[in-house]
Design brief:
CATH topology: Four Helix Bundle (Hemerythrin (Met), subunit A)
Number of helices: 4
CATH class: Mainly Alpha
Mean pLDDT: 84
CATH architecture: Up-down Bundle
Number of strands: 0
Low-confidence stretches: none
Largest sheet: none
CATH superfamily: SRP54, nucleotide-binding domain
Structural class: mainly alpha
Strand content: under 5%
Shape: globular
Distance between the termini: 19 Å
Length: 119
């Protein structure tokens, strides 16, 4: 198995883990309330999205639910998807390799040979 196959496999496992946790919350809750948002926040944090990012996502989701008067769990799920997408789009993903030497830190997914870059 090549490097990119391992990376793809590892990311697939991460995606599945996040999906399972979030879908688990939505399978338990039908009512859109503060308890649902707290459980979603916990699911995001437990999915290694990070405390600060999870809090930001839930804060934006809470505001959106109030502004749009969302009452349906499926609508909350769609809004959550949009908020996660919005946060990812804001990130500056460009590599800045103008300096010598340049350092690339690879973190995250287990089993994808992160040390591959250490050559």
């Amino acid at each position: 198995m090549g490097f990119f196959d391992k990376l793809k496999s590892g990311l697939s496992k991460t995606k599945t883990s996040i999906d399972d946790k979030i879908n688990g919350v939505f399978s338990t809750f039908r009512k859109v309330d503060e308890e649902l948002l707290e459980e979603l926040e916990e699911a995001l944090i437990m999915s290694d999205i990070g405390m600060e990012t999870s809090l930001e996502i839930i804060s934006r989701l809470r505001d959106r639910i109030k502004k749009q008067n969302i009452k349906d769990a499926e609508e909350v799920k769609n809004a959550l998807r949009d908020e996660i997408k919005n946060i990812l789009e804001v990130c500056d993903n460009s590599l800045k390799l103008d300096t010598k030497p340049s350092v690339i830190l690879v973190i995250g997914v287990n089993g994808v040979r992160k040390n591959y870059f250490n050559r």
